[in-house]
Amino acid sequence: MTSPPEGSADLQNVVIVGGGTAGWMSAASLAHFLKSRNTRITLVESSQIGTVGVGEATIPPIMDFIRVLGLDEDQLIKRCNGTFKLGIKFKDWSEIGTSFFHPFGQTGQPLEGVDFSAYWLGRRMAGSASRLEDYSLMATAAEADRFTRPIKGHNSPLSQITYALHFDATLFAEFLRDYAVERGVHRIDAKVSGAKVDGETGFITALQLEDGRSVPGDLFIDCSGFRGLLIEETLGAGYDDWRHWLPCDRAVAVQSTRNGPLSPYVLATAREAGWQWRIPLQNRVGNGYVYCSDYIDDETATRTLMSSLEGEAITTPRPLRFTTGRRRKFWIKNCVALGLASGFLEPLESTSIHLVQRGLALLLKLFPDRNFARAEQDQYNAMLAYEYERIRDFLMLHYIPSKRDDSPFWRQVRSIAPPDHLDQRIELFRSHGRIFREEHELFPAQSWLYIFMGQAFMPRHADPLAGGLDAAVVDGALDHLKSLVTRCVASMPAHEDFIAAMPGVAAH
Ligand SMILES: Cc1cc2nc3c(=O)[nH]c(=O)nc-3n(C[C@H](O)[C@H](O)[C@H](O)COP(=O)(O)OP(=O)(O)OC[C@H]3O[C@@H](n4cnc5c(N)ncnc54)[C@H](O)[C@@H]3O)c2cc1C
């Protein structure tokens, strides 16, 4: 460790409020990336308050977080009752009785310079290609409850397997806590009652604890959950409420025993006033109903959830309230909000933990010194706002093209006018099935295609370039890919067997 030179503007004290997933991800990351500096990192959490206790499904970038920090993936899976995730299955979204998959990873390859999406769509519209899922190794494996890690050097789709994890949120925070504390993070279990703010600069100088202690710092990271103890209650960031775009505002969560095979995917089933998740862990299943309180009361939502569990409930149902949207600023002066303190989008595509990861990556790219340059904060705020907005648009696409009109909720969400950017995307797709991914955007073009197709939203015309390809050649390439995917999946073990064979994982 090197000490900062005398008079240096380097940060010496970083203070994190909150010990949920966001707090411990921040502590672990900073402990790793600031290890060669003499920065003291303190995390204050309150065991009396507890954490939100949900947030068990992730997306593939989490694997980079795990690798970069040098976390042991097998240990993590073992300690957190983890399972593998290849995507999300959506049931009853377009119409009751239909289902589709949004798998991770790439589907197909370009042919003579034409994107797979374009030529597949052309042949699908001509009535000759199968469902998009049939060409995806991840979707086909998930539907067969099979899994293997990518097989390096294998000249087949097996080398391209893209996955994420499901894990117990509480155990994941504990896993990261051990990592962070081992690397010198100082943990305080106490309630924060407020913060001292410098009257002249408006900067936070210290946390005040209920027991009378104070915790001074140079940089404060607010991971205190929905309330935003520092970013909102102390600094008044303000909140953009997006419920007019995504009206769900409550959830009820419960854990249950598992019946049936261990599926390597999240099941998201559309319901009368929202949707229900099912996340399989090794030892149990996480379930929840996300709903809009304008259309269903808490009791009915809880009853709906409890009556549709596949196994026995093993916890009491836990109600949660949220306001979809984001803080107007995520970084103000010497305070950065991460996790639920920064905003919330319903967990339909498991993006919240990812936004913590993105926030941390950006914070490290723009890591401040004690001068806290305004330009760095502006850059951070603009980039994260952009990410929130693009994810919001992607989530809205799960509702707007639906054909469901069996309940007031579905009639409302179908009729919501999309924000301009999403409207332009939908129109672009409607014309010739084209989708453009912008720089820094999380979801690739094929993710959008899977949702458009799942909602049976077809373009008016196929891409003219795809139409220029020889139809017999395209059909041959598609048939070849489909049978290759089928053969690869047949060679994969059952997800359950794969996990059981991992060293140190006890059979549940
Ligand atoms: C219904 C639902 C389902 C979700 N599903 C997913 C999912 O599948 N995938 C995903 O990526 N994300 C999901 N999320 C989001 C995910 O749960 C959160 O992003 C993640 O858990 C981070 O939460 P957090 O750490 O910001 O907040 P919390 O878990 O609420 O932690 C807040 C921390 O602050 C502490 N604290 C608060 N006040 C004080 C105080 N005064 N003094 C001291 N400490 C204090 C608490 O003790 C706690 O440690 C879901 C969220 C909800 C609501």
Question: How are the secondary structure elements laid out?
Answer:
Layout: E1 13-17, H1 21-33, E2 40-45, H2 61-68, H3 73-79, E3 83-85, E4 87-91, E5 99-103, H4 116-125, H5 137-143, E6 164-166, H6 169-182, E7 186-189, E8 192-197, E9 204-209, E10 214-216, E11 219-222, E12 239-241, E13 250-256, E14 266-271, E15 274-280, E16 285-291, H7 298-307, E17 318-321, E18 325-327, E19 331-332, E20 335-337, E21 343-344, H8 352-365, H9 374-396, H10 408-414, H11 420-432, H12 445-454, H13 464-467, H14 471-490, H15 495-500
Parallel strand pairs: 1-2, 1-11, 2-7, 4-14, 11-20
Antiparallel strand pairs: 3-6, 4-5, 8-9, 9-10, 12-18, 13-16, 13-17, 14-15, 15-16, 18-21, 19-20
Helix pairs in contact: 1-6, 1-8, 8-9
Bound molecules: flavin-adenine dinucleotide.
